[in-house]
Amino acid sequence: MNFSKRGDVMINKKWKMRTALILGLISLSITSTFAADVTVTVNGSVVAKPCTVATTTANVDLGDLYTFNLVSPGAASQWHEVTLDLVNCPVGTSAVTATFKGTTDTTGYYKNQGTATNIQLQLQDTAGNNLNNGVQKKLQVNDSTLSTSFPLQVRALSVKGGATQGSIQATIDVTYTYQ
């Protein structure tokens, strides 16, 4: 009797091992059935490294302007120059594009955010091209100095005339992209 019980135990162990082996093989086939192809997508871009912005803030003081000089439509103050400098441009950066953005009024010029009314701000390059909201200006980087400069001029303008006294203030943001 001991022998037959022992045999039953051996048979049970064999069946358990066979069952475990069969279940293991089935589980492997099930997981391979659910396996999917994998797509690896790699994105990137090669870009020019930025220059160092030497002129991080440019404050232009228009001084005191007199209302009697800004009564007529199209009357304007004197031009005031400002230069935006970029230095330490890495080798390989050949050009810089400046994009000008600011709040405009119905005239298309930059809106005076101060208290004087009927006043706009006009920004130009030194060639006389208006640099209104959204306009871009591209300049080459000097290969020997690895720098570039944006010479600009700004003035107060009364498109419709009839300027009233008060403060003049506008903020024009400049964003640079590099090529």
TrEMBL record:
The record's section on InterPro entries has: Adhesion_dom_fimbrial_sf, Adhesion_dom_sf, Bact_Fimbrial_Adh_Pro
Q: A GO term (biological process) for this protein?
A: cell adhesion involved in single-species biofilm formation
Question: Its domain of life?
Answer: Bacteria
Stretch forming the signal peptide: 1-35
Query: Among the entry's GO cellular component annotations, what is one?
Result: pilus
Keyword Transit peptide in annotation: no
Keyword annotations for this protein, in alphabetical order, are: Signal
PANTHER family, sorted: FIMBRIAL SUBUNIT ELFA-RELATED, PROTEIN FIMG
Would you tell me the protein name for this molecule?
Protein FimG
